[in-house]
Amino acid sequence: MKKLFPLTVLAALVLFAALAAVPLARADGDPASDYLLTQSTFVPPDLGISTADAARLSATVEAARSSGYVIHVALIGSAYDLGSVVALNRKPKLYARFLGEELAFVYRGRVLVVMPNGLGVSKGGKALPAQQKLLDRLPVPGSSGRRLVQAGIEGVRVLAAAAGVQVPPPGAAGASGGGSSGLVWGLAGGAIAAVIALAGGFLALRRRRAT
Fold first, then answer.
1. pLDDT class for 134, splitting at 50, 70, 90?
2. Which of 4, 32, 64, 190 is the most buried (most CB within 10 A)?
3. CA Rg, the chain, in Å?
């Protein structure tokens, strides 16, 4: 019974983490800052964006990364997607800096924010004036989920091109993408991995004490 007890506890913890991860997507003050710690795109489920369109955005970001231009992208369709930081709704430049600061302890690279009224970019929480001017020339996305995706794709390509990296337009969707289900399962996977790591450390500590 003593040998089975830790495994039982581990299974219970993993199940609890998986269940807790679902409300985590909306319970946090800033959902995008949690999701972009482990993923390169944040696509809120309320935007009604298809898996195919989300995959096009992910494919563009991945193509840029493969060519040496790393950037994370957050689509924000409404105040609902900002959690408790609703004061930054329709302020893409300010939110890009805020989001960059939130991610800085793990990721200090470029962050692109796409809102219905425009785009914003930062790096490590700091504004990038020259790159921002390029984004300001792009058409205003509007509130359509598909147009937000397209604006994100064009934003990545424009910024990458300014850095000397040519990113081709995404082809037909079908590659890995970050749809609404990806938001939940990405968070669940991260939570489960953390629990397993903690449980593994706990078991290793018990083995050391036993020897």
1. very high
2. 32
3. 19
